[in-house]
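Support request, please re-run this one:
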Amino acid sequence: MSHQTSTAAPALSPKFCFNERALREFLRLSRSTIDDSITQNLNALYTPARDGFDPSSTAARQIDPTAERTIDPPACEGFKNKVLFPSWQARSDVLSYCAGVATSPDPEDPDLLLREIESAKDRERVVDERLDPYSARFFPREPRTESLAYLVRYQRSVEDIIRARTWGLVTERCESSSESWEEALNKWRETKQRPVRDL
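Re-run finished. Output below.
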């Protein structure tokens, strides 16, 4: 039986966070490996031989014979503890780290000098709105920390939606308890003695 393994977290650094393309790519790859293919991952856990062969199963075409069957509890627990939760935790760690970077001072911002020059020029401008009603408009360049903070907020909301969907399928196929994905993840963190971090 082989199923997907969780995507390893990248080396965390401010440079990684500010490379928004790399950050989005890590999240996309992790989600596609685990969450987007959750049905296939769960189907890989199902062992048909456990039930024995049923000759009547060949009488009618079955679209997905595993869809209605529950998975062996130890296989489910193994998948959640070794694949699903580590993957979610890796994404949480990356998003929490990058949220911290986004709220920290950024002395290495390559656009800092350019923004200061634009701001100084804007203060010196003489605006006569009678001649040009649009001349008062000034759109300063956004600091990269603000752009990163927006990206992290957006990705956290995406993460909530994805985890809720994945957890719904896991609880349905694994006959898990009715706890939320947040409660289950926090219990797993406690067994790993990991700090509980908000998404």
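The chain has one domain: 14-40+69-105+112-125+132-193. The chain is about 55% helix and 0% strand.
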